[in-house]
Write a structure and sequence with these properties.
By secondary structure, the chain is an alpha/beta fold. The chain has 17 helices and 16 strands. The longest helix is centred in the middle third of the chain and has 22 residues. The N terminus is likely disordered. Bound molecules: zinc ion. Zinc ion binds next to helix 7.
């Protein structure tokens, strides 16, 4: 653990609320509590959602890495009731649970494919209605909220710090704000805490009337219940700063002692544009995450995101994944090449080069999670690998391999170095193909809702495992089942297996 008497560099983060980069200080020693706003699974998740969650996954890994050594509690909620999921259920003649279950299942499968770790806690709003109702009751009792005949609203004028997070002035916000005809709030900026149910809508009992919670109060109530306030880091995409996070602050901090904050640091990930445009359901310009991941190497996508700083808006094109794929292969080849070094000797110049790279990699992460700089350092190491090999410099090779393992582990792409199946860039796999593989091979391979590419990778892994344990009959059966679907395996000299879809 870093000794406080020694001046060491340490993690610095940009705080949206103060608009400054500052050294990260946990509220409780050696412990970090994080709340990140999760998905509203009323529709398919897209790559823009993935970018944000992937960044928080890396932040979480780095906080827990021995260099920082924090025990991290990571909460990411699920907004499993809202106007859009109710509308989607009505449109499809099904229940809100079925809509949420479907889209959340797809999202989770996508997160697993991308190597995003499971949250420690994943509270669903509908399972925390008591905490939400309690908080609304406290807000009404303290005159921060009022009931009308269509619901309960938060009184924005009751909170003097409103606008502080988004750095916006209440008067400026009022310009353009208006009360819609069907709302009964007192002031245009007031927002709903509780919405009374219309006939046929899902609802829960409350002292003011049957209904459902508004989106903002869910996060305030669940973060307070599960982490306690104040907690260390509140995260989300920049699109959530206003009004969602501003409203969370108003709700939570109205019930806290004056001048105390619900979260110590507010961290926001920038948006992902698709071919220059914002990804959105209404623009219809995105492909569901699971479909996109079936066509591309998820580790290449991870690497691609890491090569842009989390606070920079990023433009996604399919071509950029190709470049990231070659980058991923370059790192893996360098790592393998370093294995071949059998010398044990020191080489002052190369030893220094690797030691310097180690320092620069972690300095980059300390600098407000500059993953782009960090990945750049790893490419420097890959570029130096041929020199290390040529000099047969054992100490440098060992140190370089250790750095790649450690660094890629923090970035969540450590699997690059060890995987023996390279997921090929493939044209869309016919879903019927996957259905048949699952039906025919269910006894030999445990499928569990993976994407098509993952399902195929599972079969390839099972086939390689069978060959390793000399069960050639099973190995052949699995290979034949794939080839019957036009999926061709190529075993590389380095022990990797790639697959392609013939004629695809
Ligand atoms: Zn939230």
């Amino acid at each position: 653990m870093p000794n406080s008497s020694i001046a060491t560099m340490s993690l610095r983060l940009y705080n949206t609320r103060t608009r400054a980069v500052a050294p990260f200080q946990p509220l409780t020693e050696r412990e970090v509590r994080i709340y990140v706003c999760g998905l509203t699974p009323s529709a398919e998740a897209h790559l823009g959602h993935a970018r944000s969650f992937l960044f928080f996954d890396v932040l979480r890994r780095y906080l827990a890495h021995p260099r920082n050594g924090y025990h991290v509690t990571y909460v990411q909620n699920v907004t499993d009731i809202d106007d859009r999921s109710i509308a989607a259920a009505q449109a499809e003649g099904t229940t809100v649970e079925a809509i949420i279950g479907k889209f959340y299942g797809h999202f989770k499968a996508g997160m697993r494919t991308l190597g995003v770790r499971e949250p420690d806690l994943e509270p669903h709003a509908t399972q925390h209605i008591d905490a939400i109702v309690d908080m609304i009751a406290e807000l009404i009792a303290t005159k921060h909220a009022y009931a009308t005949d269509d619901g309960v609203y938060y009184a924005v004028k009751s909170f003097p710090h409103y606008g502080e997070l988004a750095h916006r002035d209440v008067d400026e916000l009022l310009i353009g704000a208006r009360i819609a005809e069907n709302e009964h709030k007192h002031d245009p900026l007031d927002f709903a805490l509780w919405k009374f149910a219309k006939p046929g809508e899902p609802s829960w009992p409350a002292p003011w009337g049957e209904g459902r919670p508004g989106w903002h109060i869910e996060c305030s109530a669940m973060s307070r219940e599960l982490l306690g306030v104040p907690f260390d880091i509140h995260g989300g995409g920049t699109d959530l700063i206003f009004p969602h996070h501003e409203n969370e602050i108003a709700q939570s901090e109205s019930l806290m002692p004056p001048h105390s904050h619900m979260a110590n640091v507010w961290v926001h990930g920038a948006m992902l544009n698709f071919d220059g445009k914002k990804m959105s359901k209404s623009l219809g310009n995105f492909e569901p995450l699971t479909a996109l991941l079936a066509r591309h190497d998820p580790l290449a996508i991870r690497l691609l995101f890491l090569q842009t700083g989390y606070r920079k808006p990023m433009n996604f094109t399919e071509d950029s994944i190709g470049a990231a794929s070659s980058g991923a292969e370059k790192l893996r080849r360098a790592y393998d090449a370093l294995t071949a070094v059998n010398g044990t000797g020191a080489n002052a110049e190369l030893d220094e080069l690797v030691a310097g790279a180690n320092v620069r990699f972690f300095d980059a992460l300390d600098d407000d999670m500059n993953t782009a700089g960090g990945v750049g350092v790893l490419f420097d190491v890959a570029n130096a690998a041929p020199k290390i090999v040529a000099a047969n410099a054992g100490a440098a090779a060992t140190a370089a391999r250790a750095l790649l393992e450690d660094a890629l582990g923090v970035l969540g792409v450590g699997e690059l170095l060890t995987r023996d199946v390279v997921v090929a860039e493939v044209a869309a796999v016919d879903p019927a193909t996957i259905e048949r593989l699952r039906a025919n091979l269910g006894d030999a391979v445990s499928f569990n809702g993976e994407s098509p590419a993952e399902s195929i990778a599972l079969v390839v892994e099972a086939r390689n495992a069978a060959r390793k344990s000399r069960d050639f009959a099973l190995g052949d059966r699995l290979r034949n089942a794939l080839s019957a679907e036009g999926i061709v395996l190529t075993d590389g000299k380095d022990g990797t297996t790639t697959w392609t879809v013939s004629g695809g």
